[in-house]
Amino acid sequence: MQPEKKTDTPMTKLARFIVDKRKAFFLIFIAALIFCGASINKVQVNNDITSYLPPETETRRGLTLMDQEFITLGTANVMVSNVTYDTAAALAGRLERLSGVSEVAFDDTADHYRDSAALFTISFDGEAADPATVEALHRVEEALEGYDVSVSTEVGRDTSASLRQEMTVILLIAAAVIVVVLLFTSKSYMEVPVYLIVFVAAAVLNMGTNFIFGTISFITNSIAVVLQLALAIDYAIIFCHRYMEERDGGLDPREADIAALSKAIVEISSSSLTTISGLVALMLMQLRIGFDMGIVLAKGIVCSMLCVFFLMPGLLMVFQGPIERTRHKNLVPQINFWGKGVVKLRFVVPPIFLVVVIAGAVLSSQCVYVFDTNDADFDNKPDWQLADEKVTATFGKKNTIAMLVPRGDYHKEQLILERVSQLPQVTQVTGLANIPVEEGRMLTDDISPRQFAELAGVDVELARLLFQAYGLSVEEYGAIFQDPDDYAVPLLDIFQFLLEQKDKGVVSLTGDQARQVEDLQAQLDTGLKQLQGENWTRMVFVADAPTEGDETYALLDQIRAIGQDYYDDVVLVGNSTNAFDLASSFSGDNLKISVLTALFVMVILLFTFKSAGLPVLLVLTIQGSIWINFSFPVLTGTNLFFLSYLVVSSIQMGATIDYAIVITNRYLELKTVMEPRQAVVESLSQSFPTILTSGSIMAVAGFLIGGISTDATIGSVGLTLGRGTLTSILLVMTVLPQ
Questions:
Q1: Which member of 64, 321, 446, 670 lies 3.0 to 4.6 Å from 488 by CB, making a disulfide possible if both were Cys?
Q2: Span 199-224, mean pLDDT?
Q3: Distances (CA, A) of 684 to 331, 585, 689
Q4: What pairs with residue 338 in β-bridges?
Q5: How large a percentage of the chain has pLDDT more than 70?
C-alpha cells in the first residue's frame, strides 16, 4: 500500500478520504437535512418587488413614508355588466348596507354607468390585507351572485398561495420528465435513484439555509428549486458517467469511485465557475432583486456540488450492486450523421450565422420592455388580471398616483388639488382640502367660533374658550385669546384640538353635543387616517392613463412640477412612478450584466483553455444565442417584462456556455489522436448525451414554468429561459464546431 500512497495526487487522497469515510458523511448529511427541512418554514417571502428598489428612488422613499404615516383602506372596482341603471342603483344601495363596506360610489355619469355596465367603487372599513376586509369582499360577491360581475381589487389577492400551487405542479411534471430523460441517457437504471437522492438533498439544503437572508423574493422562492436542478444537474451526470467509465475500464467499485471523484472534482469545479460568474453579475444589479436571486442560486450551486462531492460517492458504493445488475444498452443514438453534415456545411453555415447574429443584435436592441407585470404580453393570465382588463376596457384606466407633501399648509394643498384637477387625463382628485363637511364648506376651510359651534353642536361660549386655548397653544394664533370672534382657523385643526382636550378631560361633552361631535369624528376619521400623517399629507389623483410610457411619464412630470411650485420636497408614489424607477435602473443594469457576464466568462475560459481565440468563439456563440432569443418578441410584435432579460441573459451565458465547453474539450482531446474533421464528428457524438440530458431538462423546466405559472414575472422568465436554452443547444451543436 505504501508505494500506492506515494503516487497519490492530493486530489486522489481527498477522493479516497471521502469514499472511505462515507458513513461519517452520511451522518453529517442526515443531520443537515433534518435541520434544513425544519428551517424551510422559517424563510420569509417578500411579494413586493418595489422593496428591492434602491432606497434613494422616489418610489421606495414614498412607499416607506406611506407605510410609516398612513393607512390605506381596501377598495374594489366592481363592474356589473348587462344591467339597467335602475337595477344598478338598487344594487349600490344594497352593497352600501353590507357589513364592512364604508362607502359605495355610484351615479349616472359615464364614470360609473355606460354601455349597460355599472361600476361600483367600493371602500371598505379595513385595510386590504385585513381578514375582515376579505370577508366583506366575499359578502359583496355573494350579494351580486347571478349577475355578470368583474371584480378589480387588491383585497384578498394571495399571489403567493397560487404560486406555491403552480410550482408544486411544475416540480411534479419536471420530476417526471427528469426521470424519463435520465433513464434514457443512463447506462444503468439504478443510476436514477442516486441522482434523485442527490437532487433532493441539494434542494433541501438550499431551501433550508435561505433563512440566513431573513427574507427572499417571491420570484426567487418560486423558481430557485427548478433552476438549481436545471443549472446543477451536470455535476451529478459528469461524476456518474466518470464512475461508469472507470468501472468499464476494469476497476473495482471502490477504486472506480475514487478515480472518478478525483477527476470529477476538478472538472465540476471549473464547470461551475461560468455558472456562478453569471450569477455574480446578476448580484451586481442596482435593483436588489438581482442580488436576491443571484445569492440564492449561487448557494444552490454550492449545495449541489457539496452533495455531489461528499454524498454521491457513498451512494454509488451503496447502490453498486443494483447498478451493475440493472445495466442496459445505450439508448442514446450515435449522431455521427449530424457531425458529418456539420462538417460538409462548414462554408455555408458560418456566414449565415454571422448574418443572423447581426440581425439578432439589431432586433434585440429594439425589444420593447415593460416594467409593470400587468402590461406584459403574457398569455397565461390569472382571473384577477382578466377582470382588471375587462373593467379597463369598459371604463378606462384607473391609474392612481399619490403625492406626499409636508404637512401643515392647507391653502397650498387646495391650490395643488385645483390645478391637478384641470389636467386633461386626471379624472379624480382627493385631499384634505376638498373633503366636504357640509354644503359649501370643506374640511380645511377657515371657521369662526360661532360657525364651529353650529357645525359641531357645542355651546358658543365653549367654542370661544376652545379657540382661546388653541390660540395659546399655537404661536401663529397667539392673539386669539384676546378676542376669538375676530379670528378664523382651519376647521380640521380646531376640531382635532377639541378631540385632544376631550380625551384629556379638559372639555366635557354630554347628550346631543357629545353625539354630534362623535358623528363628525366618525365622518372624518376614515379620510384623516388615509390622508394625514404625523409629518406628511397625502393627496390622491386618478388618471385615465396607462401605467407606463412617455405619455404617463410626462403626466408625472406635470403633477410633480405643480407640487414643486409650492413645496421644496414633493414625493410621487404609484405604479407609474414604480415603473419609471424600474426603467431607470434597467438601463444601467442591462449594460452592466451584459458586459460583466461576458467578461467573467471570458476570463474563466482564458485560464481554462490557455487560448485567446477559443474564449471569443465560445462567448460569441452563446451571446449570439442570447441576441436571437430576445429577437423573438420583436418578430412576434410583443413586449417583454424587463426582469426576464436581466435574469435570463446572465443565466443563459453562465449555464449554457457549459455545452460549448464540453464540445470544445472533447474536440481538443480528440484532435491529438485524429484529424480535425473526424475529431469534430466524434466530439459532437460523444458530447450529445451530456448536452441532451442537461439541456433538455433546463429547457423543459423553463417551458413548464412559462406554460403553467400565471405570474407574468415568473412565467416570462421561464419561457425566455426555455427558448434561450434551445437556441444555445442548436448553435453549439452546429455553428461552434464549424
A1: 446
A2: 89
A3: 17, 41, 9
A4: none
A5: 95
Extract the C-alpha cell encoding 632: 423573438
Q: Is 565 helix (H, G, I), strand (E, B) or coil?
A: coil
- 8 A C-beta contact, residue 604 and residue 273: yes
41-67 pLDDT tens trace: 888 888 887 788 888 888 889 988 888
What pLDDT score was predicted for residue 296?
92
Is this structure's pTM higher than 0.85?
no
3-state secondary structure of 265: helix
Does the structure show a pLDDT above 60 at 105? yes
Residue 574 Ramachandran class (φ > 0 left, ψ -120 to 50 alpha, else beta): left
How confident is residue 95, by pLDDT bands cut at 50, 70 and 90?
very high
User: What kind and span of H or E run contains 114?
Assistant: strand 113-114
Integer Cα distance of 437 and 524 in angstroms: 8
pLDDT tens digit string along 495-541? Answer: 778 777 777 766 666 666 667 666 666 666 666 778 888 899 999 99
Residue 85 backbone dihedrals phi, psi, to 5 degrees: -65, -40
Nearest to 217 by CA among 457, 45, 459: 45
With contact defined as beta carbons under 8 Å apart, do 213 and 39 qualify? no
If 0-12 CB within 10 Å is exposed, 13-18 middle and 19+ buried, where does residue 414 land?
A: middle
pLDDT tens across 678-702, in order? Answer: 888 888 887 887 788 878 888 888 8
**Which has the closest alpha carbon to 679: 696, 664, 692?**
664
Burial class (CB in 10 A: 0-12, 13-18, 19+), 646: buried
Average pLDDT, the chain: 84
CB 449 within 8 A of CB 498: no
Single-letter amino acid, residue 704 = L
Grid cell digits, residue 593: 450584466
Angle at 168 between CA 282 and CA 159, to 5 degrees: 70
CA distance 60 to 111: 31
Residue 477's pLDDT is: 58
Q: Are strands 117-127 and 113-114 parallel, antiparallel or unpaired?
A: antiparallel
Q: 558-577: per-residue pLDDT in tens? A: 999 999 999 999 999 998 99
Residues 6 or more apart whose CB falls under 8 angstroms from that of 90 comprise none
**Whether the Cβ atoms of residue 637 and residue 668 lie closer than 8 Å to each other:** no
3-state secondary structure 133-159: HHHHHHHHHHHCCCCEEEEEECCCCCH
Whether the CB-CB separation of 294 and 654 falls below 8 Å is answered with no
Q: Please give the biggest Cα pair distance in the chain.
A: 110
How far is residue 505 from each of residues 141, 215, 469, 525, measured CA to CA in Å?
45, 46, 14, 20
Question: pLDDT tier at 3 (50, 70, 90 boundaries)?
Answer: very low
Beta strand pairing call for 640-641 and 369-370: parallel
Using alpha carbons, select from 162, 106, 102, 161 the residue that is nearest to residue 132: 102
Cα separation of 378 and 538, whole Å?
34
Rounded CA-CA distance 704/166 in Å is: 10
The full DSSP string for 193-230 is: HHHHHHHHHHHHHHHHTGGGGSEEEHHHHHHHHHHHHH
Give me the long-range contacts of 464-472 (CB less than 8 A, separation at least 24). Answer: 466/494, 466/497, 466/498, 466/501, 466/507, 467/494, 469/497, 469/501, 469/506, 470/494, 470/497
Give the integer Cα–Cα distance in Å for 84 and 150: 16
Which pLDDT score, from 0 to 100, does residue 409 have? 87
Spatial contact of 498 and 466, defined as CB atoms under 8 Å apart: yes
CA distance 229 to 697: 8
